[in-house]
Request: fold
Amino acid sequence: MSGELAPGQKMSLRSVAETLGVSMMPVREAVARLVADQSLEVLPNRAVRVPLMTLSRFRELTAVRLAVEGFAAEEAARRRTSQDMAEIKRFEEAFLSEARSPNPQADQAVRANKELHFAVYRATSLSTLVGIIEGLWLKIGPVLNFDLKISPERLRTGGAPEHHRKLVAAVEAGNEAAARNALVNDITGAASFIESTGRLLD
Amino acid sequence: MSGELAPGQKMSLRSVAETLGVSMMPVREAVARLVADQSLEVLPNRAVRVPLMTLSRFRELTAVRLAVEGFAAEEAARRRTSQDMAEIKRFEEAFLSEARSPNPQADQAVRANKELHFAVYRATSLSTLVGIIEGLWLKIGPVLNFDLKISPERLRTGGAPEHHRKLVAAVEAGNEAAARNALVNDITGAASFIESTGRLLD
DNA sequence: ACACCCTAACTGTGATCACAGATCGCGGCA
DNA sequence: TGCCGCGATCTGTGATCACAGTTAGGGTGT
Reply:
């Protein structure tokens, strides 16, 4: 989800098990889950890897994200508490300070961005919905965040800080439509950046 | 998903493995996946069972279903092909003939209902979305369909055939709002029936 | 007659072995 | 010098064993 593993990168159950200092069994179960929801894939040769991303699959995932995460933003604006807002603002600031830093660190920015988004989603009090969105990020994260690490200058030029500002303000104000709109702009902005890199298949 | 297992019903990995004539390993993996997405749960005593359903969890799942499946209905109305429509109408008729049969069989009705809904969802061409909805049905199915099997008379009195008729017509006409509306009515109708049985916890 | 304890039979989980298949590299032959 | 082929090593998967923990039932003691 954090882009630590690039699309196409292979991994071995045994080497992961050795790295973590456990036997193969727990790794098998974890990987089997990720394979089941297509966050990882096993090739016909039995090699496990991060799936490659095609343009059509990227657009499909983005369409679903717009619907699901857009709904979550609406619902968050409806149901957020003051504790939710405090958490949300904390992560917004963390992202902002990293994005505006003289030499921004992509890892930190990626993490703060994720935590900000999920703080909003958790404010819906719909844990099922949060789980669904986690699955979506698991699938699209390798592309989104791996490319961001390659092009960290996007942190400065991209509109993410502005989208975040509007999102947080709308959620706090209880303005459902504005919250959805800000989130949609955030997602589509990042998506068109990724498409513009031309690194997607097909 | 079909209500074959009642909420609270326990199962044993070894007995399932013996029933299916395989070793424990494939059962372990399958159950682990269902446990991971909370379609099954392992109690502190290590017993595996179908989770009990509380009223608040039922309402949460219903809210998410309304958003996600409602979006799917819209998208289906936008993108359905004539092949999609043929499949959808086939399952609608299967459900109808079972619901209006002199002695309706709950299993058959449940199956036709599921196949009708998923034929609509598949018409979106968003396989990720279909997978998400499968997860939702896996969680709410035990309650929805187990209760339907207990009270098969609901097949006659419930408004499902009418909701289905409107849904199919709207999808065919490309009327997105009407498709979402018909599906929302179908879901809320079934949900209020379940709530009225008073069998949910809390 | 009733209550308590102990034992035997289960539970899921981790580890290890076995196996079929694929891949990669080294060595030999042309 | 270049290419082909065989073998060693890797892959994930199924099966089996070991283990800690719980549960339920029967027998014993009061």
Observations:
- Residues 13 and 51 of chain B are 16 Å apart (CA to CA).
- Residues 55-79 of chain B form the longest helix (25 residues).
